[in-house]
Amino acid sequence: MADTDPWKRSHYIILAEIIKEELAHREELQNDRKFELGTSISHITLQRFFESDYDYKTHNDLRFLKTLDKICIFLGFKDLNSFVKSVKGNNSYDESKVGKEFTKDIVYKYCRTNFEFFKFFPELRIDVFEDLIFTESPFIERIKNYSSQLCKKKLKLFTNNNRSNFEIFDIDIISEEKEMVVIKTQEFWNLVFVVENSDEEYIVNELDTQIYFIKKINNVWKIWDNYNPNSGLLNNVIQKKP
Q1: 94 burial level (CB within 10 Å; 0-12, 13-18, 19+)
Q2: 73 exposed, middle or buried (CB, 10 Å; 0-12, 13-18, 19+)?
Q3: Residue 71: which residues within 8 A CB-CB, separation 6 or more?
Q4: Are 230 and 206 in contact (CB under 8 A)?
Q5: Which residues, given as ranges, of the chain have pLDDT below 70?
Q6: Dihedrals φ, ψ of 88, to 5°?
Q7: What percentage of the chain reaches a pLDDT higher than 90?
Q8: Which residue pairs from 216-222 have beta carbons closer than 8 angstroms and sit at least 24 positions apart in sequence?
Q9: How deeply is 97 buried, as exposed, middle or buried, from its count of CB atoms within 10 A (0-12, 13-18, 19+)?
Q10: Strand, helix or coil at 183?
């Protein structure tokens, strides 16, 4: 079969059956893992893969990633990640591209976590950032400083009828080094805070550009610093109030 060039449809059907039979007995595909990935591979997917008949969007398709997982297991690796690690250092593996998407994901997760962080007010829950921001970073210190003042004022985030919300309009990598990635975002934050047990209300309604500095320390990627032109804006509004 391998001596035929080019392969015909029947060859991919036979290969798909061989892979399916082999995967059914692999230790890596037992219990929950078997239900998650399955053991079968479409012969059409195999043909597209070997003929490079796919585009960039396919790489982000969960089904495509699962297929790669199964092919790697068939080839003797634990999973796709094990295969990537085995070829690390070769020209076929671009670690920076992996880092790009991963660091963007950190920023998205930070914004979602930051919104949840406000929901805890007037309780100060800095611990929610542990997986996203380095505890010794200047960024976490600034968050502590301005947030502790807001909590002392007994502010609570008002979320009824979606009064408070946020949105990320754009996210781009503007600088990339081996252990530092700088990301720029366009963010809209619409936050309504009320003073606990009162009618006093404060509103943050800002569209701004933010810069995130993401570092790799001890092989771990987290946010190290952030430039936000409106950081501490609410504190200033409260201080100026007569």
Answers
A1: exposed
A2: buried
A3: 19, 41, 49
A4: yes
A5: 1-6, 32-33, 36, 51-65, 84-100, 239-242
A6: -60, 130
A7: 36
A8: 216/99, 216/178, 216/179, 216/180, 217/134, 217/179, 221/99, 221/102, 221/103, 221/106, 221/181, 222/106, 222/131, 222/132, 222/133, 222/134, 222/137
A9: exposed
A10: strand
**Using CA atoms, how far apart are residues 125 and 146, in angstroms rounded to an integer?**
13
Structure tokens of 31? 């219990």
3-state DSSP assignment of residue 132: coil
- pTM of the shown model: 0.60
> In 10 A of CB 186, how many CB atoms?
14
Measured CA to CA, the distance from residue 29 to residue 184 in angstroms comes to: 40
With beta carbons less than 8 A apart as the criterion, state whether 193 and 159 touch.
Answer: no
The tokens for 239 are 């201080």
190: helix, strand or coil: strand
Give the Cα separation of 149 and 155 in Å (integer): 9
The two structure tokens encoding residue 152: 């002392």
Query: By three-state DSSP, how is residue 206 classified?
Result: strand
Instruction: Tell me the per-residue pLDDT of 103-132, one tens digit each, with 9 for 90 and over.
Output: 888 999 999 999 999 999 999 999 999 999
